[in-house]
UniProtKB/TrEMBL annotation:
Database matches in SUPFAM superfamilies: WD40 repeat-like (SSF50978)
Name this protein carries in UniProt: Uncharacterized protein
Amino acid sequence: MRNTGTFKTLNNETRKALHNRLSPSLNETKRYTVSCLVFTENLDNRYSLLWCAYGHKLKMFNTTTWICNPNDISFSSVITCMCSDACDKLWIGCVKGEIFIVDTIQLICKTQLTTIVGQGGCQTMTYDTLQNRMLIGNRSGLITIWNTNNRQRLFEINLEDIYQKSYHMQQKIYKTEMLLNLRNQIEEPKTNFSSSTSPTDIISTLSNELKTIQIYDNLLFACYRDDYILIFRIINLDTFIYEDILSVKYTPESSMPIHSFLVYKHQLWISTSCIISVFNINYGNKKNSYHLIMKKHLEDDHLLTMLGFSNYICAGSARGYVYIFRMDNYELYKTFDGHKDGVCCLCSILDMYIISGSQEDDTSIVVWDKEQIKDDIATIRL
């Protein structure tokens, strides 16, 4: 959806839920996509902030007054990803590979870490809450793992390497760039996701460009841009096992680019073109299984980002919509039409708000009232 210079007419559902609209492009000479949004909480409300990545600048909005701090923090290249840790620090990744750490209390950038090398610089990052580690990856699938307590660089892993060395030998263990003991070679039941291709076919016919990663419990999900997701089990501090691969394409020759995915409450949601695929995650002692339970058609649209809250999936679309799906029956529950360009990032502020940010032809941030979104949440059970 493109900005035509006219105002959009908001429907009643949108007006009811829309709490506020913010403009990070105010006083800026160039328009950028709102690429990332992160909320950081502090007991002193003066320091509870919404952080917005806008080009090479980091903007800060007070979540009580919604006033933007006039003192932006600027970086040497465009911000591509960011994530907060448990130590009141915000990790910033840039397109040229630079990693910066911002103190969310003092509101200053205090540290620059070793630059990530390789294709795409800092492509994606995710925080491991169980081990207090930040995982940062480039497009080639090289993941650098950092201790967030002391900012020590621990080790690197190559996801494609783990897969290639593990699949043909029944999942060897990968530990800090060393292959260790073979797993039990007894054949385990196959998952029942619909695909006419083997994992070898999936990998060999596609580029290996990593798009995004997510930690869920002791699992690492890695989404590759063309059409597959690699899944690894994290055994301990430095041991990763390739567990499974999911693809939503129909034949080895076809391609179904993945626009976004989300793992939340034992469900895996994948958006490809106009199709949403939902998998159920069934935990096992040695290996989990991933069962396709639903495919939904989304008319002339696709999802650029997803966020889970309560028993709902909130999704931002390429046409500027914010969709709310129920997790019990997978139905589209509500549609909010608040942006004039694609919605590319979402974040949650406690139990109060959902925040959406849009691409460069709109560059707005919309604050949505959660109470209006989930007004009958008591009736929904998974």
